[in-house]
Amino acid sequence: VEASEEWAAEIKRLARERGATLLAHNYQLPAIQDVADHVGDSLALSRIAAEAPEDTIVFCGVHFMAETAKILSPAKTVLIPDERAGCSLADSITADQLREWKAEYPDAVVVSYVNTTAEVKGLTDICCTSSNAVDVVASIDPDREVLFLPDQFLGAHVKRVTGRKNMQIWAGECHVHAGINGDELTAQAKAHPGAELFVHPECGCATSALYLAGEGFVPEDKVKILSTGGMLDAARATGAKQVLVATEVGMLHQLRKAAPEVDFQAVNDRASCPYMKMITPAALLRCLLEGKDEVHVDLATAERARKSVQRMIEIGN
Ligand code: 13P
Ligand code: SF4
């Protein structure tokens, strides 16, 4: 099955027939983004999923995102075109590891990135995404210790911005973003003087971006550490002719649509998330034809996780 106009028409017809809304993350293949009813970052999609009037949500993204939609709307049918679409970051901490960590800091507030399993969310006080992580941590009593997990680079970014000292950070990473390294960013920034930098906080190079600004290679106001949704807002507002983008390459599609006059270049054009790309045109078609794969979260786990996810969608709104 290839993406084509006929394919897109069939997808839309089947979705209507099922009473389903199609959500797609900014890292999805361009054809999947274009056929979706809503495209966005993890926070925006969680909010849309929570409020959707439809009884069925087809989540074109990775498993934890579909799981989050199910946690928020247990009565809805949530489908993902391929349930094997995992996330290396979500895999970097297990519920047992979190239990042990919490035992070391019994009074701490646990902040988990939305890129975690439902079980880990159930052991969490507040979830966050890259677009509201700073607001979430800033909302916590300054005297309480914070356990932040699982992404070390996002954690370091939040610590830098909030200036918080009493914050422990788990040493997890996303293999796609960690692979966008400082040397590459530095080389690209030097080869493209005048370009702005949009850097996702999960990137291994987020610190190098600030270093480049500190050393005067790139003016400070031209270095932006942003979630994927934040990048789109910044793209619409930028006066720059060229922007270097440090995140998963799927992002370029929405950026180019949002600001066609700007030249967006990937800092690392091999930074493609293999899990996001499991959602192929064929997989989406099969999903709508067969009603598979359905996402299940057992009720007790969903119940425990819901409060932390609800706090996430309320903060920074
Ligand atoms: P955001 O869309 O929230 O920026 O998240 C990026 C990501 O890596 C999701 O897997
Ligand atoms: Fe997970 Fe990284 Fe893929 Fe995002 S890009 S879904 S964090 S593996």
UniProtKB/TrEMBL annotation:
Gene3D superfamilies for this protein: NadA-like
Species name: Rhodococcus pseudokoreensis
Sorted UniProt keywords: 4Fe-4S, Cytoplasm, Iron, Iron-sulfur, Metal-binding, Pyridine nucleotide biosynthesis, Transferase
Described function: Catalyzes the condensation of iminoaspartate with dihydroxyacetone phosphate to form quinolinate.
Family: Belongs to the quinolinate synthase family. Type 2 subfamily.
Cofactor note: Binds 1 [4Fe-4S] cluster per subunit.
Pfam families: NadA
Coarse class of the protein's main subcellular location: cytoplasm
Protein name as it appears in the record: Quinolinate synthase
Positions with a binding annotation for iminosuccinate: H25, S42, Y113, V114, N115, S130, H200, P201, E202, T228
Subcellular location: Cytoplasm
SUPFAM superfamilies xref list: NadA-like
Residue numbers binding [4Fe-4S] cluster: C87, C174, C273
Its EC number(s): 2.5.1.72
Catalytic activity: iminosuccinate + dihydroxyacetone phosphate = quinolinate + phosphate + 2 H2O + H(+)
Cofactor: [4Fe-4S] cluster
Metabolic or biological pathway: Cofactor biosynthesis; NAD(+) biosynthesis; quinolinate from iminoaspartate: step 1/1
